[in-house]
Amino acid sequence: MSYKISITENLNDIDRAIISTLYLPVIKSLAFNIYMFLYDSFNNNYLKIVNDKTILSYFNINEDKFKVQIKLLSAIGLIKILEHSENKKIIICIKRPMTFESIKNNTLFKSLIIKEIGTINFDNIMENNNNNLVNSNYNDVSTSFIEIFSPIPVEKTEISNPIEDLNAISFYKYLTKASASKSIRNSIEFALENGMNNRGINLIINYTNNSKGRINKNYFSTIISDFIKQEIISFEQIQYEIENIISSINNKILKDKSNNEPIGDVLGLLNSLGQ
C-alpha cells in the first residue's frame, strides 16, 4: 500500500527535545524512528507518496507491525490518519508534539510518561526545559556570537561598502561610533534568527539612524518585528519597503509644505508610519 505524507508544520529544536525526552519512553524506539523517518524524509510542506514496502525494508519489519506503530503514533497524537471515503487511499499527516506546558497539564499522558521514567526524572525534564528558567534577579550578560566573530574589524579595515561588507553589529558601530546597546543587539539577533541577513539589517540600521548618529532603538525594534511578521526578510524586500517608507515621508513633507503646515520632527513622522 502507498501512503501520502502531509507535513504542514516544521519541527523546531524544542519539539524534537519533547519527542525524544517525553514521547520516546512511551511510544518506544520503533515508533519514534518511523515518525522521525517520515518527517525528515518528507519535510517539504506538501504531499508526497511513500510505499509501505520502503518502510518495511528500512526497518526490517512486517506490515502488521508497521500498522501497529502507525496506530500508536496516531493514538499519541503525533500523526493523523485520513482515509478517502471512496477509494480508501490514506494520507498520513505528521503533527507537532504537545508543548511542555500542555504535557504537564495532560493528566493521562503525564501518567504514562511517569510510569516509564519515574516522577523525579519527569520533574527534572520539566524544570530543565522550562521557558522561564532565567531568574528575575539575573541579567543576561552573555557575549553574542557576532560580537566576537566579526568578519571585518571596523577600526583596522578600509570599508568600501559598509552596508555590504560589515555585519550588523560592526555596521552599527561604524555608523554611530558607539557600541550597540543590549536592546539593539537583541533586535539584531532576533532578526538573524528569523532569516534576515546582515545586509538587510544594515539597511534598517542606516534608515533609522538620524542626523546626530543615533539610532531610535524602539523604532528599529518595531521595524524588525513588523518586517518579520510580514515575511519581509530578503535584502531586496527590505530595500523595497524602506524606499516606499521614505517615499511616503517625502510625500507627507511636500503635502505639509504646500498646506503651510509645520513639518514637525521627522523622527516622529517615522514613528507614526511604523505603527
Task: Report on the architecture of this protein.
This protein has 275 residues and is an alpha+beta fold. The chain has 14 helices and four strands. The protein has a four-stranded mixed β-sheet with strand order 2-1-4-3. Strand 3 and strand 4 (90-94) form a beta hairpin. Helix 9 runs parallel beside helix 11 (198-208) and helix 11 runs parallel beside helix 13. The chain starts with a strand and ends with a helix.
Give the topology, please:
Blueprint: E1 2-7, H1 13-41, E2 48-51, H2 52-59, H3 63-76, E3 79-83, E4 90-94, H4 100-105, H5 107-117, H6 119-128, H7 145-148, H8 162-165, H9 168-176, H10 182-193, H11 198-208, H12 217-229, H13 235-258, H14 266-274
Parallel strand pairs: 1-4
Antiparallel strand pairs: 1-2, 3-4
Helix pairs in contact: 1-3, 1-5, 5-6, 9-11, 10-12, 11-12, 11-13
Q: H/E order of the elements? A: EHEHHEEHHHHHHHHHHH
End-to-end gap: 54 Å
Mean pLDDT: 78
Fraction of residues in helices? 55-70%
Morphology call: elongated
Specify the structural class. Answer: alpha+beta
Give unreliable regions as ranges.
131-137, 149-157, 262-275
